[in-house]
Amino acid sequence: MPNPETPALLTHDWSMGYPMTLRSVRLARLHVRRRLTMWNWTGDIDDAVLVASELVANAVQHARVVGHELWLRLAELEDGGLIVEVSDPVRAAPKPGVAPDGEGGRGLLVVAQLADDLVWFLRPEVGKTVRARLAVPKLRTSGT
Length: 144
What we know:
- This protein is α+β, with helices and mostly antiparallel strands.
- It has a single domain, classed as Histidine kinase-like ATPase, C-terminal domain (Heat Shock Protein 90, 2-Layer Sandwich).
- It is about 30% helix and about 25% strand.
- It is built from three helices and five strands, in the order βααββαββ.
- It has helices spanning about 25-40, 45-60, 105-115; strands at about 10-20, 70-75, 80-90, 115-120, 130-135.
- A hairpin with a 4-residue loop joins β2 and β3.
- The longest helix is centred in the middle third of the chain and has 18 residues, at about 45-60.
- The radius of gyration is 15 Å and the shape is globular.
């Protein structure tokens, strides 16, 4: 089981709770784009928005529990990387796959392609957290 501790060297940290509704997916996209723009994050904001959107959608679809909400967290690391976490009230492991009708089921596969690291861990009180880490691409120096 991965270590749930976030690396200590953070330059920004933000989190917000959302109801377990499809509307939350759209709101999360807007909030992530706005927050990363405010932070002047140098990574691919479109990728980060897509990662957050897929993780929130996955929580809404597979972890909806009456009386609970999901939590989205963004943490910018000192090296410019970004942690995107979504916590929900269900302790079952997230399972990537494709729906039998071919529609949907690809969210975690998309996240795994965009993220440099994708892990999940149980929360002490209730539920789990799915964490994706996005690195900032290294700038090429001339002559390489």
